[in-house]
Amino acid sequence: MFTGIVTAVGDVKAVERRDGLVRLTVESTYDPAGVEIGASITHDGVCLTVVETASRTGGGMRHIVEVAPESLALTTMGALKAGDRVNLERSLKIGDELGGHIVQGHVDGMGEVISVRQDGEGYRLSIRAPHTISHLIAQKGSIAIDGVSLTVNEVEGDVFGVLIIPHTWAVTTLSRLQAGDKVNLEADMMARYAARLIEARRNT
Question: Are residues 70 and 32 in the same domain?
């Protein structure tokens, strides 16, 4: 489980394409002593397992994760290249503050950025969600965009908008988004279960 509160921005140093999967090498400010092999870290909202770690000269760490074919096909992980940056969040521990909302790290689909515009000191993003999950997105509900927990401000059809405060803009990769970019979307878990329950009742 995660909260959608980004705790570091990682630098992708290498992308190694192997038969059936991709290995990503990522550098971050995390303390290597606190990240064990097998730990779960979300990368732009995608939960991945750490398979190697190493200390980095000057502080921080370098870690490697492996991305399976399904994640490569259904998320932005397949388009990553050396030099890209990714939002990182370590898994939630019992007793940690739940600052965002409950996020599983299981991306529901990729959205397309329609527009990015400044609104006062903040920024507004308009995003088109895939038809398969648009019904799970509600005004004032929660959504994770590239692993960042945000509140939905408005919804019109399959397009929704969010307002990003200056702090979030500064400490995540959302500030790099442009119209036409793809983003990982994870709908609120409660909305997903509610929709499944309604579907099951209709079929009985």
Answer: yes
